[in-house]
Amino acid sequence: MPCLHYKITIISRGKGNSAVAAAAYQSGVRLYSDRDHRTKKYHKDAGEVVYSEVMLPPNAPPEYSDRNILWNAVEEAEPNWNSQ
User: pTM for this structure?
Assistant: First the structure.
C-alpha cells in the first residue's frame, strides 16, 4: 500500500531561490516572475506531473485561482532580500 509523503522546505530569497520558480517546477507549468521579469519553466518528463490544481479557501480572492497571480502575490508580500 502506498504511503503519502510530504516534504516542506523554506524558499529563501537570500539564497537566490524564488517562490515562483519553485511553483513552476512543482506544477510543471510556465510562470512569469514579476520580481525579476523572467519566465520560469522547468522541463519535466512527459506525464511526470499527473494532476495540478490551486485549491483556495472560500474567503480567498478569486483571482488567486490563477497560479501566476498567486505566487507573484506571495513574493510581493515579502519584499526584503532575505525573505522566506
Answer: 0.78
